[in-house]
Specification:
Helices cover 52% and strands 6% of the residues. The chain contains 15 helices and five strands. It starts with 9 loop residues before the first strand and ends with a helix. It is an enzyme of class 3 (hydrolase).
Amino acid sequence: MGNRKGGDTLPLHRKGDAGAPRGKPVEFRPFKRWFPWLVPLFVVTNVALFVLTMYVNNCPQSESRVAKVVGMTSSSRCILQSELGRFSFQPIRENPLLGPSSSTLLKMGALAVSNVVSGGQSWRMLTCIWLHGGVVHIFANMLSLLLIGIRLEQEFGFVRIGMLYVMSGIGGSLLSALFMQGSISVGASGALFGLLGSMLSELLTNWTIYENKLSALSILVIIIVINLAVGILPHVDNSAHIGGFISGFFLGFIILIRPQFAYINRKNAPPVYQAPKKRKYKTYQIILLLIALILLILGFSVGLVVLFSGVNLSEKCSWCHYLSCIPTSRWSCSNSSSQTSCLSSQLGNQLNLTCEATNKMRTYYLQNPNANDAVYQLCADLCS
């Protein structure tokens, strides 16, 4: 993104450099270059947790359990069951991303608002950003993380990027919980959009360091708009994208601030050259930092208070659902917020389920009336 003034190194004549030919410039880097290890570690962690989730999911066994509870023969609907065994994927109609069931994701720590607000499981707002819904989901996110995160870690180090990634992910979870209360949420998308948001604020707050400013800004804005536009497709939680982007945008003003170029140039100037004193940060940088810090604290505080007050913002805002899905002639948004929510009534071993998203109804005859996990799976099947 954009070339910095003088590139990564600056030519400088140093007096008394041992072994250096007379008059030959000595190069130095105005900013330290870091070795990126945290972002690759994040990728490995996400992949390992996905493998663990598929192990826990154990599609063949769960299908057999559901079939036994309902009193029917298992039909072995798991994808690639003979090749992958217990790591095989749920049927396409249940999970088109090639991954586990919703009940398994919930067990592993997916974001479910009822569990957070009523169950005291606030930790789900953090754990959900390390889980993914399928192979397609994790491949897209991890590829983006490598392309964006490694360069940022090289520029700013693992401490700053680690803080930025985790806090943006939590910010995405918070906004998702406020607007998408009828479904579970997983994925690192909020954290990834936080990295994009921080790149924009970093460009703005370190404006004097960059050459070709308008070109760099235009390219970055186009990338951000395209990524946010993808979020209007069905079954994509754009609330997490927007929450992560806003969090990362404000965090960028705070933790990615750079000293102004004139200050760096004077600091590394030869002793014989007495340049005028320069402040480390420009006034606008300090102002942006303070504004971002206030808005960030205020936003998280208000969001948490509203969430734990049991308020569903999607019911208070008649148009906000368009931020996550815009219905067209090619797709419907009706299933995006309540795809696994069912109304149920039970009399003995007879269970009647009605999917709230599609109004589909079905009656099941259970051999074990107390098998709640199987009932949840039946609801997911009915709403698929």
